[in-house]
UniProtKB/TrEMBL annotation, chain A:
Designated name of the protein: Sn-glycerol-3-phosphate ABC transporter ATP-binding protein UgpC
SUPFAM superfamilies: MOP-like (SSF50331), P-loop containing nucleoside triphosphate hydrolases (SSF52540)
Residue span, ABC transporter domain: 4-235
Classification via Gene3D superfamilies: 2.40.50.100, Nucleic acid-binding proteins, P-loop containing nucleotide triphosphate hydrolases
Keywords, alphabetical: ATP-binding, Nucleotide-binding, Transport
Molecular function via GO: ATP binding
UniProt xrefs under CDD domains: ABC_MalK_N
NCBIfam families per UniProt: PRK11650.1
Gene that this sequence comes from: ugpC
Protein family according to the UniProt entry: Belongs to the ABC transporter superfamily.
From TrEMBL, chain B:
CDD domains in alphabetical order: TM_PBP2
Location of the ABC transmembrane type-1 domain: 93-285
Family to which the UniProt record says this protein belongs: Belongs to the binding-protein-dependent transport system permease family.
One Pfam family matching this protein: BPD_transp_1
Topological category with respect to the lipid bilayer: Multi-pass membrane protein
Regions that span the bilayer: 28-50, 92-116, 128-149, 161-185, 206-233, 263-285
Organism (species): Siccirubricoccus soli
Full protein name: Carbohydrate ABC transporter permease
Keywords linked to the UniProt accession: Cell membrane, Membrane, Transmembrane, Transmembrane helix, Transport
InterPro entries: BP-dep_ABC_trans_perm, MetI-like, MetI-like_sf
């Protein structure tokens, strides 16, 4: 087990296209770090460079304190789980898991002990004699994880391991992966484009976009205090609403002036933070879950009421999503399912201003 | 379901007719397929059957043009006995086996290694080389035998089976390499990456992953190399004139046709015996030719 360090890592392809533009990252021993971002953001390339499957154009990678820039994958003491499992089709489940240990000339008894132990952890003991083609998707993914576990490597690398599974199995395997990490505690780097996976699994989430790291932090930190507009919009589902606004003075306090006339008071404790941006055109960011129905006798602090006319109402069971538009910006509100919301009917909404964000549209930074 | 439930055709009047027409279409497709296959089978099996019948006749019966060539009045095995009893023919067989076994072995070693390198190792000129390998196969042996005669002669290998062992791979290696490039390329890249991370070097990756996974392709290439070297005719005709170095293909023809005298019974018996090994090889290897071996490697 070991820490992983990336220093100014660059990946440049022929023709000068940079997939990864000089990223720095420190991953602690036993940590579960998830790289998340849209396709083409460089997360998979970064993982493959850590694995040694992709050469780095510049920078340094260290695993367990040792520089591995020029060390082939087999000598980096890592194990990888691929999106499409990459099981050896001609070998049984047992041989698939034992293959790496056999190549490393482990004694037979030790191989047997490790394979059976991994099979026990993953609950695939009864599948050991089967070939991959006789397994379901979820079972194949377990075997792929088993192949990583038996090696007892310094680092686990997961490359979008759940993307090929159906939604239900994905949730189940997600829990499974977290359970395995809690058991074996190996340092884990996990790549996904699914922010829910990232949030649920990670000790720390690394949000990447266009080959750079936008923000690194624990899931709750990213959710509550996003650093950029990209992170604010990427983390959370449904995504955060962004409404063009102007920051104005209102007595001794500040207020957010929305197009269409609505003015929302900014909480007192933010006055100092936002004062410098007074009079500027900004983006007002608020999550759908902080834009709810007005409840009877609602005396929540920092509440602002916003009149809306939903155009689309989506009942989800445990909640209802209402969509409306303010000057071309689509806004989503998360309502209690008992709320009598209907398309075209006026609906007063309560904005929890303590959870608001202001974004500078020039720098895309959250203020 | 209740007993009074309406039949689908009552509810949706158009449906019954549609199903009927699909069934009729399917029946027609089957009938057409069977007729085509029967015609093809008759066409393909006619010559071997004619050979078999002729090989079982006496010379007198073969020469009797008043009878149908498709009938036999008296079955005789004398043609086979004469062929098999003649040490010279056993020599032809022996030569063919030696040449074929060596050519298949040489071909498979070279083409599996070459295909693996061309399919998986990115190096300068690998694409051009892969195309070049295939282009060499496009030059027919009827053109190549003249310059090759010079080369084989220069090496002092005329009238020697070793000349054939040297020359046949020029026919088999390019095509087998091409087939194997295709098979290796179809193996998911993640499989080699998984093997690399598991600790395999290139050779282990080839022997423990690629060869077992691409076995159907290797068998197909082996069958091809076997067929080409067993049935080669132009090169041995050009390079071999002495009977003791002749393979079966030219041995049978050169020894059983004397001027304008054709020993038809023995010719047919010899040709059938020569055709036997490929039939056995095909029948045996086909059992191992299991398509879809890669199913389950990845997503599936």
């Amino acid at each position: 087990m070991a820490q992983v360090t990336l220093r100014r890592i660059v990946k440049e392809y022929e023709g000068g296209v940079q997939a990864v533009k000089g990223i720095d990252l420190d991953i602690a021993d036993h940590e579960f770090v998830v790289l998340v971002g849209p396709s083409g953001c460089g997360k998979s390339t970064t993982l493959r460079m850590i694995a040694g499957l992709e050469e780095i154009s510049a920078g340094d990678i260290a695993i367990g304190g040792a520089l591995v820039n020029d060390i082939p994958p087999r000598d980096r003491d890592i194990a990888m789980v691929f999106q499409n499992y990459a099981l050896y089709p001609h070998m049984t489940v047992y041989d698939n898991m034992a293959f790496g240990l056999m190549l490393r000339k482990f004694p037979k008894a030790e191989i047997d002990r490790r394979v059976k132990e991994a099979a026990r952890i993953l609950d695939i003991g009864m599948l050991l004699d089967r070939k991959p083609k006789a397994l379901s998707g979820g079972q194949r993914q377990r075997v792929a994880m088993g192949r990583a576990i038996v090696r007892d490597p310094k680092v686990f690398l997961f490359a979008e391991p759940l993307s090929n599974l159906d939604a239900k199995l994905r949730v189940q395997m997600r829990t499974e992966i977290k359970k395995v990490h809690q058991t074996v505690k190996t340092t884990t780097i996990y790549v996904t484009h699914d922010q829910v996976e990232a949030m649920t699994l990670a000790d720390r989430v690394v949000v990447m976009n266009h080959g750079v790291i936008e923000q690194v932090g624990p899931p709750q930190e990213l959710y509550h205090n996003p650093a950029t507009k990209f992170v604010a919009g990427f983390i959370g589902s449904p995504a955060m609403n962004f409404i063009p606004c102007r920051l104005e003075q209102s007595g001794s306090a500040l207020q957010v002036q929305l197009p269409g006339g609505a003015a929302l008071p900014v909480p007192q404790d933010r006055t100092a933070r936002y004062q410098a941006h007074l009079g500027r055109e900004l983006l007002f960011g608020i999550r759908p879950e902080h834009l709810t129905e007005v409840r009877p006798n609602d005396h929540r602090e920092n509440m602002a009421v916003l009149e809306a006319v939903p155009e689309v109402v989506e009942p989800m069971g445990m909640e209802t999503l209402a969509h409306f538009w303010i000057e071309g910006a689509e806004i989503c509100a998360r309502l209690d399912p008992a709320t009598p919301a209907a398309p075209g009917r006026k609906l007063p909404l309560a904005a929890d201003m303590a959870k608001m964000h202001l974004i500078d549209p020039k720098t895309n930074k959250v203020l | 379901m209740s007993a009074t439930a309406a039949r689908p055709s009552d509810v949706l009047p158009g449906l019954g007719r549609k199903i009927g027409s699909l069934r009729r279409e399917r029946r027609w497709a089957l009938v057409t397929a069977y007729i085509s296959l029967i015609i093809a089978a008759i066409f393909m099996l006619g010559p071997p059957l004619y050979m078999l019948l002729t090989s079982l006749k006496t010379s007198a019966e073969i020469a009797d043009l008043s009878r149908s060539p498709w009938s036999i009045s008296e079955i005789t095995f004398s043609n086979y006995a004469q062929i098999l009893g003649d040490p010279m023919f056993r020599g032809f067989f022996y030569n063919s086996i030696i040449v074929t076994v060596l050519v298949v072995a040489i071909t498979m070693v070279i083409s599996v290694l070459a295909a693996f390198a061309l399919a998986r190792m990115r190096f300068f000129g690998s694409q051009v080389l892969a195309t070049g390998v295939f282009l060499t196969y496009l030059v027919p042996d009827t053109l190549l035998f003249i310059p090759l005669y010079q080369i084989v002669g220069g090496l002092g290998l005329l009238n020697s089976i070793w000349g054939l062992v040297l020359v046949y791979p020029t026919l088999t290696v390019p095509f087998c390499t091409w087939i194997m490039i295709g098979y290796f390329a179809s193996i998911p890249k993640e499989l080699d990456e998984a093997a690399l991370i598991d600790g395999a070097n290139w050779m282990q990756m080839l022997t423990k992953i690629f060869i077992p996974v691409a076995l159907p392709g290797i068998i197909a290439a082996t069958i091809f190399a076997f067929t080409v070297s067993w049935a080669a005719f132009v090169y041995p005709t050009a390079f071999i004139t002495q009977p003791d170095s002749m393979p079966l293909t030219i041995g049978v023809v050169s020894q059983l046709i004397r001027g304008d005298t054709f020993a038809w019974g023995q010719l047919m018996a010899g040709a059938l015996l020569a055709a036997l090994p490929p039939v056995i090889v095909y029948a045996f290897l086909m059992d191992y030719y299991i398509a879809g071996l890669t199913a389950g490697a990845t997503k599936g």
